[in-house]
Design goal:
26% helix; lipid metabolism; single chain; alpha/beta; globular; FAD/NAD(P)-binding domain; 6-stranded antiparallel sheet; FAD
Length: 547
Amino acid sequence: MNDTTLHSDASKGVSRRRFITGTGSLLGVAALAGPTAPVWATPRTAAAPIGSGAHVPVLVVGTGYGGSVAALRLAQAGTDVHMVEMGMAWDTPGADGKIFANTTRPDDRSFWLRTRTKQPLSNFLGFPLDRHVNRYTGILDAEEFAGITVYQGRGVGGGSLVNGGMAVTPKRENFAAVLPTVNAEEMYRTYYPRANADLGVSTIDPAWFDTVDCYQYARVGRKHAQRAGFPFLFVPAVYDWDYMEQEAAGSVPKSALDAEILYGNNYGKKSLQKTYIERIRATGRVTITPLHKVTRVSPASGGGYTVLIDQLDTTGRTTATKTVTADKVFFAAGSVGTSKLLVGLRATGALPLLNDEIGKGWGDNGNVMCGRANHLWDPTGKVQSSIPTAGIDNWDAGGAFAEVAPLPTGIETWASFYLSITKNPHRARFTWNAAAGRAELDWQTAWKQPSIDAAKTIFDRINKKEGTIYRTDLFGVHKIWGDHLTYHPLGGAVLDKATGNYGRLHGYPGLYVIDGALIPGNTTVNPFVTITALAERNIERIIAADL
Ligand code: FAE
């Protein structure tokens, strides 16, 4: 089915407005309603939030993948660690009984300090989907820079709270191009297996995949890929598949099968809260302070570092500023968070010896999205699991790896939807704007063209083979490509350039980068397994040599 037939369907009784409202919408068609009353509880704070004047052996900035690996291994090695996280704890159900909001019904919990949602899929059938929300320290940050919106998770668990859980190890032959100074043999023998095991990565049972309604969309994606001659693969994930089978059987509360993804997942996904952070808590050596944002790190007169931390309330207002000292500081604020902090600290004189590589080498992992309009005889299913399991690999021939993504609207859309990771050569740089007092990124929207070209090597061929066309209603009016965003920010403090070969920042013993900022802009696949594996490699060396 193409757009024309969709519209003519609408004219045959299902009005366009009713059709859209019926979608419920991933797509936030709740947009048609006004703001909802708050449905969440006051977030808990840490049992013992960090206090002004405290001295800690190790302070970790951020609680995503890099930060969680560092904290766990340091604690296991006998070091006390304090983790500081600007987002909320996400451990308290709201009045609706759920910790996290549903993707189809965004509320104040959904976005970081916005008064209007900014959903990645901004439109459906030409209707804009965004809606008013109250400003709140919600879970998904849509951070806007000049040429790109960068989506990031906010809260204890970082991006693991909001991501699709696709846990992909890059092909070994591609790894050398990503991180040429890292010993690939060691990574594939030790650190990738460790990361996969400790993240709880596994692959769907292919027999179940072949029969269950909620993966019809992925089976259609497989059929189209294979008929066009592309290699299809199952993509591993961090979801509890037994739980999903029970969801499908109707015996447990639904999560993946209730369209939960972008704003958190209430049950089956193994976010860091259920893996690394659970083990971190079990060590008894780590304190986690949410709703606290690190703003400055500078050498302390008696050795170590002075760290300034703003305590935030849930409107994002600073309610106190704390000063602590730490012997060692790990920057794990994510590619954007770490890069912004470091360029600011260098420019404002807090850490003037940081080198000229700080802020450079930032990329979007070549992310670009698109939808295809299928024929009427190729439905993709009303109920779609929010956890993708299928990929189309055309990296070697066309520079694109596409995931067959869900469009869990609750009604049949006849749409196939894809997020492609592509070989995009462009790299941007963070710089400090002294007048505005903030870091800026010089990415240009036009730099997505190589990504579009790469994605077209897959989807032009599939469309030709199937006699189908691209959807033009998902990212605006008559706009095919979702080329304004990324889910996968990488780089800004690149390994062996801004840091040594294990993440030590030049000029400042005891300061480390241990997150996605180390990776130079692209991983050839979804990034969190590589971020975790690299952090495992680096922290092992740092513990052995520096502690
Ligand atoms: P990250 O997980 O972003 O953690 C950084 C933490 O630091 C965050 O919790 C911040 O709130 C916190 N922070 C930042 N600044 C400060 C500060 N100044 N003070 C205190 N705290 C601070 O970093 N990747 C995949 O591999 N597979 C997927 O399926 C996938 N899907 C995605 C879907 C979405 C919608 C999004 C947004 C991302 C997705 N990703 C996916 C990307 C993945 O989540 C991301 O690469 C990692 O989370 C990055 O890990 P880091 O440890 O670098």
